[in-house]
């Protein structure tokens, strides 16, 4: 059965970045993020990690004493590759109510940020609190120091570790109701890890759905959105081209199956059993939107269950800005999706 549910949260159709209206606070943060990525990227394909450490504010794990702030714990799997994850869980857990499990993969073009970056620490706390869930936020290796498929390997290894060591999670965590979630590069990782999971066997982990927030896909072709919005906030065409160049294997172009997931070299999923339902979020002012919609259409053609939710009047990474109305809306959509899929047989 194919479920193709398309929802547009606003009827307005905009694409001209000059028409975009954002609060001053959001504009300041967007400008800072753009400056950080531009000044730490080098033309030779390396990153100034020293400068980046000074500008990427990190937040320690904490044990919360209030019901409004999620508690966190860091767990290390492999010190040699700095593979660890941050656990987020509500400080107030309803008696007898099992917690869903969200495996979260952060964005940053495979190159930047981590689970302890301030923005992602805040986002995962919201996931834990609003979804009554345990969130496993993965610290995967970053490019260009670690190219494809390091990020996919690390993400999958964390899921396999949790499957083999369920005691790492709170006793109320239900591994039979797991979800993969990620934004931007993390959405890309979530897809490819789901494919790998379908070809593997787990003892306890059952993946019920994928929460794909503006996933980072691409290709050699320039889409209408990329042509129309080459200098959009955060994901300008120049920045995304650079990220693909330092992530993909040497000599490969953006039509590699990791980037152009629905393109000519795509990994076929039509006959892949157990591929979970997907809810996909797309924004009108995101230059990646056409690639994301192609992903949705490809899922439908492949016979997979998919929901598409469009926010025509907002930007890439909008959900990380609580001052934007769409930020509250997306968490409501995600909550409905998770509740629906968690109850499925």
Automatic annotation (TrEMBL):
Family membership: Belongs to the 'GDXG' lipolytic enzyme family.
Pfam families attached to this UniProt entry: Abhydrolase_3 (PF07859)
Name of the protein this chain belongs to: Alpha/beta hydrolase fold-3 domain-containing protein
GO molecular function terms listed in the Swiss-Prot or TrEMBL record: carboxylic ester hydrolase activity
Gene3D superfamilies (alphabetical): alpha/beta hydrolase
Gene Ontology BP annotations: pollen tube growth
Residue intervals of the Alpha/beta hydrolase fold-3 domain: 102-319
Species of provenance: Trapa natans (Water chestnut)
